[in-house]
Amino acid sequence: DKSRGVPYQKVNQLQGGYAAVFTDSPMWIVLMFDKSLRNKVIRTSKIETHWFKPARANEGLVVHARYRRQETKNGKTRFFSSAIIKNRKGETVAVVKAVNQLIEK
Prior knowledge:
Blueprint: E1 5-7, E2 18-24, E3 27-33, E4 41-51, E5 62-71, E6 77-86, E7 92-104
Antiparallel strand pairs: 1-2, 2-3, 4-7, 5-6, 6-7
């Protein structure tokens, strides 16, 4: 749901793509998409969130994201994404890691 996302314009932006940070209940979920993955159905099979400090939505958080894509033996696409979320002081608030799988075009 793009309406809940915050466009990601900073570090490690993907060529021709975008990354977004979503807040859903108390958990930050980080998903990264490149141009070829837009309008596709993606399942997140595993998310790990490690909190280091409490944070509010109005704190001006910055996300540094990483992305790696892999083709499986049966022809499916898996991609791994991770992000470090920092506050204005530069302190790490949370680290999020996700394993995702493309399931439908």
